[in-house]
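Supplementary Methods S3. Input chains for the assembly prediction are listed below.
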Amino acid sequence: MFEAVAFYLFAFLTIAMFYITVTTAQALYALTALAAGMIFISAFFFILGADFLGAVQIIVYTGAVMALYAFGMMFFDTTRDVKEKNGNKFIVVGLATLAAVMVVAIFVAPIVSTNMQAFYPMVEGVGNTQMVGVVLFTKYLIPFEVAAVMLLVAMVAGIVLAGKKMDLSLTQMNAEQIKEIEDKDKKVLS
Amino acid sequence: MDNAYLIETIIKVVVILLVFSALAGIGTYFERKVLAFMQRRLGPMNVGPFGLLQVGADGIKLFTKEDIIPTNVVGPIFKIAPVITAATAFMAAAAIPFLPSFELFGYEVHPIVADINIGILYVLGVMAVGLFGPLLGGMASANKFSLLSAARAAAVFISYEVVTGLSILAPIMMVGSLSLIDFNNYQIENGWIVFSQPVAFVLFWIAAFAETGRTPFHLIANDHEIIDGFGTEYSGMRWGLFFIGEYANMFFISFVIPIIFLGGFGDGSVLGALALLGKMAFFFFFFLWTRAAWPDVRPDQLMWLCWKVLMPVAVINVVITGLVMMF
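Predicted structure tokens for the full assembly:
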């Protein structure tokens, strides 16, 4: 009974929060509702017994939405409504409906055809943190490592974009050129 | 799910809520007294013996003060922000074992609301959500000092979170579990983790200061720079809720540090339970001590410290722990 109550409560809350996220013209409402919705989703993981994924959902999305808040702070006066530029409403509604129907179809297809089988069924007595680790480092090792490399590339790119003088290479310059750059810096500073 | 379990859980929740709301109030008294003695003052003296009833006087003031919602704020967000801070602080307490299990009238009581097997991740994750309170309160306030404080909250959050996660990773690798009770039991057999992981201990302790927003990293609500930061526009109980959240967080993190690094409640005897309370008191006192002894750092210094010093040290610590465990 508790599971049913919790499921319907959090289902309602999650949908309400994402509805607010999409419909409101207030950046602060949208961001807060997004954060709340993402955190409420973790409840479904807890109900299903996937504690580890639930906690990860909370930790990852608080951090991710926090970064969005930082952008919101920079781009908008978050206490005022944003004037939105609405294009052709029929195209927007049509595409959104199509996308929603496709997502539902993709997820429902295996249930309808009753072909659902767990590749790695749960082992009794093994915590789901350990099971996630086992699956991640055996079957999904390559996607996992590819994701790691992608994050590394993104990090390097971020440093290059944000850092100063990243287009210069000190190793390819001779001593005079380096000295020239250093002198220029001193002038700017003084 | 049987009824006994249900009643037990409800009683535990209510007890934790009451005890720690009261402790949050008394914590402010301790803070003022400790700070006063360290600065050669007397602190609260007039209300009751040794000023002990000052807590009650503050409570009456906070509860009866008018709740002002300024004109230009974003109403709903402004109202809900303090609740987030207070509520998440108490939600985090659900996975902390406060005492060893004991017998009461022939019924075994486990003083932990839910012994989930990801305890430490849950505690840290939910505590981190508490920083949404200052962030939202600051952004909704329509006040430039509040907005500055919100920007600092975001900066603090993304800085310390990495350090907390990475520093706790090495002890987790050694224990092989995320449950705080398993941490405690591991240390009965293998000695305190602080002796094998001193670096992780220091890093986690530093990050705890950022997590609770205490003095070296108190830049979110620095009185001398940005008035009261996110709290500038708040009054009455809404302002009080921020502080109940902050002090409850301090108490909970003071429980978590000894349980992870300093042996927790040991083998579960009365002595062990008292030792845990003593360690908790020490860490709480240390928060106040630092506030009297240290100046605040600037936001850029905090980010420099977290990203360029603590995070590499934490990563090296994890790598060395991994190598030692492998060979």
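Chain B has a mean pLDDT of 84. The beta strands of chain B are 102-104, 107-109.
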